[in-house]
Amino acid sequence: MLSHNLGYPRVGSHRELKKASEQFWAGKIDREELQKVARKIRHQNWETQRNAGIDLIPSNDFSLYDHVLDTSLMAGAIPGRYHQLLDGKSNRELDLYYAMARGVQRDGVDIKAMEMTKWFDTNYHYLVPEFTINQKFSRYSDKIILEFEDALQKGILTKPVLVGPVTYLLSGKEKEAGFDRIDLLDNLLPVYISILKELASRGAEWVQLDEPALVLDLTEKDKLALQSAYTQIREALPKLKVLVTSYFGALEDNLGTAASLNIDALHIDLTRGAETLPQILADQAFFASTKKLSLGVVDGRNIWKNDLQKSLDFIKSAVEVLGENRVMIAPSSSLLHSPHDLELEKNEAVLTPEIKNWMAFAKQKLDEVATLKRLATTDWATDEAFIANQQAIETRRNSALIHKPAVKARAQSVKESDFERQNAFPVRQAIQIKKLQLPLFPSTTIGSFPQTDEVRQLRANLKKGTLTIEEYEARIREEIVSSLRWQEKLGIDVLVHGEFERNDMVEYFGESLSGFVFTQNGWVQSYGSRCVKPPVIFGDVERPEAMTVKWSAFAQANSEKLVKGMLTGPVTILQWSFVRDDQPRKDTAFQIGLAIRDEVVDLEKAGIKVIQIDEPAIREGLPLRKHAWNNYLKWAVDAFRLSAAGVADQTQIHTHMCYSEFNDIIDSIAAMDADVITIETSRSQMELLDAFANFNYPNEIGPGVYDIHSPRVPTVDEMIALLEKALKVIPARNLWVNPDCGLKTRKWPETEAALQNMIIAANILRESV
Ligand code: GLN
Ligand code: ZN
Description:
Layout: E1 2-3, H1 16-25, H2 31-52, E2 58-59, H3 67-74, H4 93-102, E3 104-106, E4 109-111, E5 116-118, E6 125-127, E7 130-131, H5 143-153, E8 159-163, H6 165-171, E9 173-174, H7 185-201, E10 206-210, H8 220-236, E11 241-245, H9 255-259, E12 265-269, H10 276-281, H11 284-288, E13 292-298, H12 308-322, E14 327-331, H13 353-356, H14 362-376, H15 384-398, H16 405-412, H17 425-436, H18 453-464, H19 469-490, E15 494-495, H20 507-512, E16 514-517, E17 524-527, E18 530-532, E19 536-542, H21 549-557, E20 562-568, H22 570-575, H23 585-605, E21 610-614, H24 629-644, E22 652-657, H25 666-672, E23 676-679, H26 689-694, E24 700-703, H27 716-729, H28 748-768
Parallel strand pairs: 1-14, 2-8, 7-9, 8-10, 10-11, 11-12, 12-13, 13-14, 15-20, 20-21, 21-22, 22-23, 23-24
Antiparallel strand pairs: 3-4, 5-6, 16-19, 17-18
Helix pairs in contact: 1-2, 7-8, 12-14, 16-23, 18-19, 23-24, 24-25, 27-28
Organism: Dyadobacter chenwenxiniae
Binding site for Zn(2+) 1: 656, 680, 741
Catalytic activity: 5-methyltetrahydropteroyltri-L-glutamate + L-homocysteine = tetrahydropteroyltri-L-glutamate + L-methionine
């Protein structure tokens, strides 16, 4: 039985790569210095895995920015606009690489970055390969060879990892019409074969080709492409051992394809697709082959300790059918999606020993894999590590820290009527028009105002203890008041308090709710040098006390105008956290929904008449398989409705979503039934509105009229043009005027100028109708 790992986090346990990359981009260190940091991380990762006792250790799982971009560079899939960077002599690969990743603007060169999108349903973003008709590929970067050699010199014979050719093609985009990118397979394969041949000639025994596309809805053509790819690779390399990995889901209808691939081992994800195991063990073609089955038993995407008993049961059932030799043990996916090392969490006030004992980060997951291999061939029931593990699992199952009968009972007794506002939207709208007295085309902003260094410093000083809570709150109140005066002067209709007290729209709520904990070093790569530190939802979620009422009520008391209350919705809080794995996500979403509901009701009681519940993450929670969409959308929409429906008809509920494709989920967006939705549309020139127009979306809507991602100040005319475009498809009385998103990352001068123009545009429009 072999143990192996699919990939290890690459930013370094103290985010060394982030720091070095940013210094390199700022011109503060040179490429040698950067490469030194990168090499050190790789060496440490390999050593950590060797010390843990992992049999097959990956290489080329490291990346300076993104492994899909690495693959594009390997295959010479370099879009035309970067070719001017190709003609240099030596040492240009890195410049080209970062130009593709981040764009370049220097010495008269101005080239945009490649597009970025989410890697499957993770929060990791990759750079989308660009393809053209009949595109030719040729080997360009030898990174994979260099890293393999580097490890070899350290005495480690690694298993090089590559994005598989089919997943690579499917992850890309056709940049011109008239072809299907999967048709490029035969052009692409020679590059893979050439690389694999060189690896084999340098001594590689195993290679890992990641084909998570195996858990997607594939066409017959895609399936044939998989067959063809691995048949061709086998023919070219009869002796190299090829492991193909699937992960992030079950194989379902792709099982037959996966089981019959001409390869040496197939990896399946048992944390997200356990049903695949009995199916593949019953598959005659798989059984009759000599292929190994790699069992992804340790969750690569969460922070919970593995239940060794459960994993050993999986292993046992596989060994019974296939024999020990044909079974491999691994994490479910690359550990890229886990934080580095739980042992770095030393602050017991933040993470208590009891909760910490339920968790495992990447480094601990390696130990779990090695332990499972050891236990699988012993009488594990009396093993010390096994007993300790089962004790931890057992305390988690019963801990009063986690399980709060009252919270569970409340979530279970939710009734249909709890999801419903008192009356349907037309009735509510009529009441709100009367009560709120807003003009046509009301203007508002999405919530946050610039978080200046000064404001950040306030929070930091409060944390350090150099500012008392009274001093801190007084300063925040000053910020709120001055932003209110400023909004009034501009003539905005629905004001906001500015969110100065919030570090992050999820963390802020997590810190006030029970059932959440935070880590100090639990960083996970989001893209390039950007890392996030998601909160951990470990237990039943409850709202011990009001979270935002103090600030919103203060703001409302200080203005004659309406001030909008500002909350983050249950789906977004869920989506941007590490979520407990001992109950369905839906149950956790409902618990959070109820907590937010209480806050909404309290805001209403405090005199707040307009309340926004942000849900930018609704779409990213969509399951990978289409057939699972309805179920998800139903509970996600219900969780939102639960949070919103506790108020009277006259209270106006807003929601906000960032840039998102709405077409295929528009009925669910409508089912959320927010009185007003604000969305990001300016970069798409209002195109995203079409989904709402085609659907005859009935409620009010604020399509963003300016892009907040750029410091550029849009002109009055541009915004009028966008609003006129919107008016073609949205009835005038339903149209709001607002920016695309919150203004947290902007500076004050451009914010003032842009909002001023926005208000002028709204006024001109009002006069014209
Ligand atoms: N209310 C939040 C803000 O203005 C919304 C942020 C978001 O949509 N991502 O910052
Ligand atoms: Zn947004």
